[in-house]
Amino acid sequence: MTLSTSNLLGIKDLQPDDIRLILDTALQFKDVLQRPVKKVPSLRDVTIVNLFFENSTRTRISFELAEKRLSADVLNFTTSASSVSKGETMLDTVNNILSMKVDMVVLRHSASGAPHFLAKHIPAAIVNAGDGINEHPTQALLDALSITEATGGLEGKKIAIIGDIMHSRVALSNIYLLNKMGAEVTVAGPPTLIPKYIKEALGVNVTYNVKEALDWCDVANVLRIQLERQNQPLFSSLREYNLVYGISRKLLDSLKKQIVIMHPGPINRGVEIDSDVANGNESIILQQVENGVAVRMAVLYLLANREG
Questions:
Q1: N-to-C CA span, the chain
Q2: Is residue 3 one of the residues assigned to a domain?
Q3: Does a structural domain hold residue 226?
Q4: For tag attachment on the chain, is the N or C end more exposed, with fewer CB atoms within 10 Å?
Q5: Residue 55 domain-assigned?
Q6: 233, 294: one domain
Q7: Do 71 and 43 contact (CB within 8 A), yes or no?
């Protein structure tokens, strides 16, 4: 089987079969990562550039590790140490890199739609590592793999996405994926951080009561407050946010069941989630990190080996 697309621009563009293929391939690579020798020659002689126009630590390291585990040749590019700081456009930058015979570009950009723009102008395969407040497809895929491992599947599962929905590309990619795979989704958080259109446009449930969401769900995916994307104050204080919308041990202990806790990171401990929850038995946050490498290996492998 091959993917139906030559790029990974977003979950919105994927078919359910594409998602299943990526997750199945990721499980095979996860087995590889348990071996004493964790490297395979699958992408030998394939050159991949990590093009990060926006700060990132976890995603960039995860992609780089995935590339090196596949034996690809890797170029790392950050704007602070490049000609972009001198005024060079993204297209000029990429064309210069492509002249070095690069096969694949992993792109993170603060502008929504940047990977789609690039895909129309260059022949290399594009992987979206996060574009503005639009999508973060590999995060949704690794979240899906983590949910599947923790609960046995996606279809029919109840997933609550809690926090700053409005500014989160993780939330959007997760909603697209979970809807395609037959899960139910509820978003929860302050009214100022949940888009007004979301219920009608994306087919999700909406609640402003976090306990209500936790009582309903099998899995809670907790998002951080993205202060860097907010142009104005949307709640009174971080302390108030924690008291009303934060996930605490007391809140979890008040539920009549045990649920799975996830977080895409970086975690603001004591704001959206308390440390004893992030480190607790319900948490699969470290499994998400581990699954990130396997999922990104799967995406890169499938795109590099796609015929046509």
A1: 13
A2: no
A3: yes
A4: C
A5: yes
A6: no
A7: yes
Considering the domain architecture, whether residues 95 and 29 belong to the same structural domain is answered as yes
Is 177 found in the same domain as 128? no
The DSSP 8-state label assigned to residue 146 in this structure reads H
Position 78 confidence tier, pLDDT thresholds 50, 70, 90 = confident
Is the pTM here over 0.90, yes or no?
Answer: yes
* Pick from 190, 242, 232, 236: nearest CA to 213: 190
Q: Give which of 209, 223, 216, 111 is closest to 166, Cα–Cα.
A: 223
Domain residue limits at 123 = 11-132+289-304
CB of 296 closer than 8 Å to CB of 138: yes
**How far apart are the C-alpha atoms of 304 and 104, rounded to whole Å?**
8
What sign for the dihedral angle of Cα 124, 125, 129, 131? positive
* Mean per-residue pLDDT over the chain, rounded: 92
Q: Is residue 6 part of a domain?
A: no
* Other Cβ atoms closer than 10 A to 113: 15
Residues 21 and 111 in one domain: yes
8 Å CB contact between 97 and 51: yes
User: Is 122 within 8 Å of 95 (Cβ atoms)?
Assistant: yes
CATH value at residue 43: 3.40.50.1370
Q: Are residues 147 and 174 in the same domain?
A: yes
Domain tally, the chain:
2
Bond before 266 cis per omega within 30 degrees: yes
Helices (H) and strands (E) in the chain, counts: 12, 9
pLDDT at residue 112 is higher than 50: yes
The arithmetic mean of pLDDT across residues 42-55, rounded, is 93
Which residue, among 270, 257, 261, 263, has the nearest Cα to 292 in the 3D structure?
263
List CB contacts of 69: < 8 A, sequence separation 6 or more: 29, 32, 33, 38, 39, 40, 293, 297
Strand partners, 75: 49
